[in-house]
Amino acid sequence: MILGIIGGGRAAWAFGSTWRRLGWPIAGVALRDTAGRTLCAPTDAAVDAGRGAQRAPSIISLLATRQMSLDELANEAELILIAVSDAAIADFARRIPSTRAVIFHPSGSMTSVRGGFSLHPLRALPPLGAESDLRDTLLVFEGAHKEIAERIAGAAGARLAEIAPEAKPLYHAGAVFGANYVAALLDIAEELMREAGVENVRDDLVALTRSAVDNWARSTGPQRFTGPAARGDAAVIEQHLRALASRPELAEIYRRLAESIVAARK
Fold it and tell me: pLDDT for 217-240, tens place per residue?
C-alpha cells in the first residue's frame, strides 16, 4: 500500500516509521503548498527549535522520501494519511483533489472524512526523530474500509478495536485521562515536592508512577490503589487538604480523586 502523508509531527512520524519497517512504499510527504503556507500545525522539531533547541531533521529526510503537493499525493498514493491538528483535518480533506486513494487520519476525537476511516493509536507518541513504531499498539478504528485497517494492524503487529462514530469523544476523553492528564499530575507532584524542599525528583517520580501503573495493571479490585484514600485514612487526607489550602484548585483535584478511590473500595 503506497502511503502519502500530510503533516510532519508525531502521528505522521509513527505511521511513516512503521511503513518503513514493513518495507511498504511511501509516495511522499506534503508539508507546504505552492504558496508557502504551512499545511499543518508546527512539527515538534519546529517547536523545539523555536525554544532555542537545535533544529532536528525534517520528516522528509528521516523517512528518506520527497516533499509532494496535494495534487501529487492524490495521483500517486493509494492511502493518504492526514496527520494534522484536529481543527485542520476537515479543511485538508476538502483540499485533496479527486483521488482513488483512501483517506484516513489518526485523530482520537474526529470521525472519518471523505468515505475513509480514522485509526487512532492509543499511545503517547514519541516526538519526530525519536524511535517510534506502532508495534504492540491498540489502533482504534472507525469508518469504512475496515479490511485496510486490519491489514495495517496485522502487518504492524498491532491490535485493532472498532468504535462507533458517536462514541469517539467519550473514548478520546478516556485516552486523555490515561495519558495527558497523568503527565499534568506529574508536573503538580514535582512542583509540590520542590516547594517542600525535595529537589531533583523527576526520575523518582517516574519510578513511582511506573510502580503505581504496574500495581493497577495487576488487579481490577480495590488493591489496585495504594495511599491514604485506599486505606481509608481520613486524617491524612485532611492533613493534605490543609497543606493545599492556598491552592484551592489543586485541593479540589485532590479531593475528587480521593473520593473516587474511596468509592472504588466499597
Answer: 999 999 999 999 999 999 999 999
